[in-house]
Amino acid sequence: MIVGPCSAESETQILEVAQSLSRLQIVDFFRAGIWKPRTQPNDFEGVGEKGLQWLQQAKAETGLKVGTEVANAHHVELVLKHQLDMVWIGARTAANPFSVSEIAQALQGCDIPVFIKNPIHPDLHLWIGAIERLLSVGISKIAAVHRGFSSFHISENRNEPFWELVFDLKRHFPALPILTDASHICGKTALIPAFCQKAIDLEMNGLMLEVHPNPSIAKTDEKQQLTPEEFENLWKNLVFRHHPATENIHNPLDQWRNEIDVLDVELMEILARRLQTVQKIGDFKKQHNITILQMNRWKELVESRLLMGEQKGIHRDFLLEILQSIHQESIRIQTEIFEKEDTDSKK
Ligand code: PEP
Ligand code: MN
User: Fold this and answer.
1) 3 alpha carbon – ligand 1 mean position (Å)
2) Ligand 1 mean position to 172 CA, how many Å?
3) Alpha-helix runs per DSSP H in the chain
4) Please, which pLDDT band fits residue 247 given cuts at 50, 70 and 90?
5) Same domain flag for 221 and 270
6) Quick one: which ligand is closest to 93's CA?
7) Can you give the pTM of this predicted structure?
8) Is the pLDDT of residue 61 over 90?
9) Are residues 221 and 257 in the same domain?
10) Measuring CA to CA, which residue among 143, 168, 166 is closest to residue 254?
11) Which of 207, 208, 143, 133 is CA-nearest to residue 176?
12) Cα four-point dihedral sign 159, 163, 167, 172
């Protein structure tokens, strides 16, 4: 459960809502945005750096873990300096690969959880790409946050859920926890409880919700912020069924499995590309009457790859077996091309 106001507005507001939430003992992270990416230039853009001290104070007074949204390396630097417990990357930033890479670099080497929202438009590859960028610098505690997508489609929600994209993400990274940000999907408080129940029923792994001590005077997202009492009621009424979302996002095994999932996707892509190149070579050899097996080339290839592997600490016998297996498949593909020629010419 990641809960707290959309924006940090004042020290009193932060401390008041943090106190109410900590009493409930169901919140894992207290959230508050201090740098707010806004559509209009004159809208409230957050209190900035001073909000970090309020979050530190909220943590000291309540024991809640605290986090905020980061949109660039400078934000990360300040967040780490103030020892916050988590960060999230917002939907606008998640859509920008340069920004995500910059944030990933800045987070490298620290082990706080990083939550990555879906990019604002419905592009699953962009979301996956952002997660891969975080994984590629060794960040291990990652979870995705589903906050809905911008769409021309007019519906009761502020952002379209497009659940199929979330299921595809789960299929792509089976061990990746996914949280539902029902506040930004629904956009109005009346819809939030039912949406949270749906998320739980769909085995999402957690919720991100905006709670403000006095939503009607909130400086941002006033229609979608619950009062602490409304939040408490929502929580009490949630029904957890047989397979509640209890995956532990701090379980390192799950995180390493995420990494393996990503690496295997890359491995498959590289292998497929390599075999497609073999196909082109086969076609060319067939056209120019060149034999399939060129012993010298094969010998050189094996020697150089084994040397490369050795330098990377890969066991020689294991690598030789892989190379032989790939070579065998290359020969099979080329033989098939040549045999096809024979049959064609006999026709
Ligand atoms: C937020 O969490 O307050 C926020 C700005 O969300 P999003 O990036 O999903 O719009
Ligand atoms: Mn918000």
Assistant:
1) 12
2) 24
3) 11-24, 50-62, 73-81, 91-94, 97-107, 124-136, 163-172, 182-186, 192-201, 228-237, 252-287, 295-311, 316-346
4) low
5) no
6) 1
7) 0.73
8) yes
9) no
10) 143
11) 143
12) negative
Residue type, 131: I
Using the mean position of ligand 1's atoms as its centre, give its distance from the Cα of residue 147 in Å: 8
Would you state the structure tokens that stand for residue 69, as one six-digit string? 């949204």
CA of 69, nearest ligand number? 1
At 231, list the tokens: 């939040």
Ligand 2 centroid distance, CA of 7 (Å) = 7
List, for residues 158-184, the tens digit of each pLDDT value: 999 999 999 999 999 999 999 999 999
Q: Is 128 in the pocket of ligand 1 (CB under 6 A)?
A: no
**DSSP for residue 215:** G
User: Mean per-residue pLDDT for 318-336?
Assistant: 93
Phi, psi of 202, rounded to the nearest 5 degrees:
-90, 15
The reply to whether 185 and 78 lie within a common domain is yes
Give pairs for 9-13: CB < 8 Å, separation 24+.
9/47, 9/218, 9/219, 10/47, 10/54, 11/54, 11/57, 13/212, 13/213
Q: Is the CB of 139 under 6 A from ligand 1?
A: no
88, 115, 184, best to mutate for ligand 1 pocket (most atoms within 8 Å of CB):
184
What are the Cα distances from residue 86, in Å, to 27, 52, 142, 252, 322?
A: 14, 12, 10, 16, 41
Rounded Cα gap, residues 272 and 268, in angstroms: 6
Instruction: Give the residue from 79, 60, 45, 83 showing the smallest Cα distance to 11.
Output: 60
Nearest ligand 1 atom to the CA of 90 is 8
Quick one: 59 and 176 in the same domain?
A: yes
Number of separate domains in the chain: 2
Domain holding 318, by residue range, is: 250-346
